[in-house]
Amino acid sequence: MSVNFPDRYHLTRTLNQRFARQNLAQLIHTNSRFEGVTTSFAQTEAILAGQAVSGVSAHDRDVIILLQKGWQLVLNSTEPASLEFAKRINALVASKDALFPGELRTGRGSVGLPNGDEFVPSVVDSAKEQAY
User: Half-sphere exposure of 107 toward its Cβ, with a 13 Å CA cutoff?
Assistant: First the structure.
């Protein structure tokens, strides 16, 4: 199933990069939420500025710094979007958390749902991912 989202704003690559740079702290703060980081926006900004922040675990600080490095890779690259590029980004940002950073998962796992059920995602098909 393919989803088509129209380009409502017609931003060039340069404008997209400028927008991301201007909103980098907010993007990283939002991304870190997906990793369970609970820092405030001000704490995230301070970490990104290289300042010490009390009350923030080393793990949370590392997540924020690795997300910053991942965004820097994206913003400084001229490489087109591809599965290989996405794997390079993942290898960087997941380097301290994933068993095999930068690799597509090959095993079966499950995620517990709030209602007690489990979601078991299908095995990743590399060829389909590359084509997508």
Answer: 4
